[in-house]
């Protein structure tokens, strides 16, 4: 029986993240995951709130989170990336539901982003798949 999951995607760098969403949807079908909902949020800071909203649903068994935190001129991206990552780990532990982490960065530069779109999307799906089978 398929496991019901949701996708939460940051809309910053939307063209690249849309490619990640397409990869996740395709690979999810191959791994017996049913995408119940895909949610777009403005940026990385909003990811944890939307993830929590979804994890509160009994029907959602896991979440796949996608986004990009690029390298900027200041440490803002690094600080944001650390805070968002910690929040996502905390949500996973609190809910006892897996979250596949498909965020590129923090500190990613343009060439790195392009090279990592497919790998990060696939890794997020495979992580949730494996954790739901345990």
Descriptive overview:
This protein is α/β, with parallel strands linked by helices and 134 residues long. It is 52% helix and 27% strand. It contains 4 helices and 4 strands, in the order βαβαβαβα. The chain has helices at residues 14-30, 47-55, 76-95, 110-133, and strands at 3-10, 33-41, 62-70, 99-108. The chain has a 4-stranded parallel β-sheet with strand order 2-1-3-4, sandwiched between helices. Helix 3 (76-95) links the parallel strand 3 (62-70) and strand 4 (99-108). The longest helix has 24 residues, at 110-133. The radius of gyration is 14 Å and the shape is globular. The two termini are 15 Å apart.
Give the helix proportion (percent range): 40-55%
**Any low-confidence stretches, pLDDT <50, length ≥5?**
none
- The strand line-up of the biggest sheet is 2-1-3-4
Sheet with the most strands, sense and barrel status: 4 strands, parallel
Q: How large, in whole angstroms, is the Cα Rg?
A: 14 Å
Structural class: alpha/beta
The overall pLDDT average reads: 95
The number of E-state strands comes to: 4
What sort of overall outline do the alpha carbons produce when their principal axes are compared? Answer: globular
Strand content: 25-35%
- Report the span from N to C terminus: 15 Å
Secondary structure elements and pairings:
Elements: E1 3-10, H1 14-30, E2 33-41, H2 47-55, E3 62-70, H3 76-95, E4 99-108, H4 110-133
Parallel strand pairs: 1-2, 1-3, 3-4
Helix pairs in contact: 1-4, 2-3
